[in-house]
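Key idea: predict the complex, not the pieces.
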Amino acid sequence: MKIKVIKIGGKLIEDDAVLQPLCDSLAALNEPFVLVHGGGVMGSRLAEQLGVEVKMHQGRRITDAATLNIAVMSYAGLANKKVVAGLQARGVNACGLSGCDMAVVKSTRRKVTDIDWGFVGDVDKADGKVLAMLLDAGITPVVSPITMSEQGELLNTNADSVASAVAMGLAEKFDVELVFTLDKAGVLLDVDDPESLIETITPELYAQLCAEEKIHSGMIPKIDNAYKTISSGVTSVRITSPNNLTGGTLVVK
Amino acid sequence: MKIKVIKIGGKLIEDDAVLQPLCDSLAALNEPFVLVHGGGVMGSRLAEQLGVEVKMHQGRRITDAATLNIAVMSYAGLANKKVVAGLQARGVNACGLSGCDMAVVKSTRRKVTDIDWGFVGDVDKADGKVLAMLLDAGITPVVSPITMSEQGELLNTNADSVASAVAMGLAEKFDVELVFTLDKAGVLLDVDDPESLIETITPELYAQLCAEEKIHSGMIPKIDNAYKTISSGVTSVRITSPNNLTGGTLVVK
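Result:
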């Protein structure tokens, strides 16, 4: 069975005028999928409203106890349930999950070195068997980036990493396409020209484009990460815009 | 198979010094259960912090759009995930659910009459089959009082009603004990004397106690509601304190 694991950014959920057409597109896929969402914008706005200072170190957020509660409220709560309700309204039997639910995504709290990142988790693995049980029952898991440590601590986690782990966990049983959405049409030779889309990236083409310095530096970690998940059993990785879930750039073996 | 459906109030979740021993008690039950929780205190506090006015009519809250978002964040988000993480830390494979997840609890938005209650739902039914699938897989559902209408709207709902619906939904397949927790030892002949606990209430004893005006007026709707769920297939209803989940008063046929 083919399964799509689709990662969407949190900012797509905040605004109903964006979320509702996205739910239309997801419902129109008419094939089994798992959705993984971020939620950064909602969290930052709630922190601002509550007067909780956003602490950063080298451009990355530090998650203290108050910030974790805000992340849980906005990502596992509001963002997750808004998406689930939007899908349910379109006949998709969605089930919202955070990593703690059935221990579906486990992570390890980031070690304190020169800096204490607080309640931030690095993903260990997603439980493909639990997700398969839901998918086999016709249920669409919608996964937030709140994960759980072995000790049962809630941790704030990078949603791209959660999506990769979910895809790898499902690859044991299914033919998995991992879909990353971004605000471009896909991987472009010229970032300002949507017509310059590369439809398919193979390892050979990727090596050639890198050698010719034709890949935008921001895209390199995404494609490297795509090949990492492919080497762990994921069939292909699609990089596309959220309004074209079956288009964009397909990264293959 | 015997299943307990346990309702706990939201104020038990707010304070870790209360929540952690409660999670110990739940883990020590060593039998399958479904937990249904409220979350009122968290919602009110968040509303206050955000400067959202709590609108009331005849002692009942009106749920406008801002208040609904707060309820979703605090009940479906923070309260639900705190309980799930607390249970997971004790080896209970909990799964947090709101009514929208797998459409597990459906409700109808309350009709506008002389007053518009806003996004408030009256429970229609809980899906016992979906809950049974989880229970059969060794999973402990933890259900928040955020439910969903047929149209996919999120609605704020009374947690006691959700617990009753869950118990009735499971009664088709299981031998269900519905447990309501409160800040008394159970049903007392003298509310100020815990020693006056009635251990078992039968319909005959209940009729007699009512005739003799020996039941506190606040307890009558709870016992009436208990008999309503029993007439819908639930085996028994326990009214007890959260630190004595197998004690208190047992209401039976």
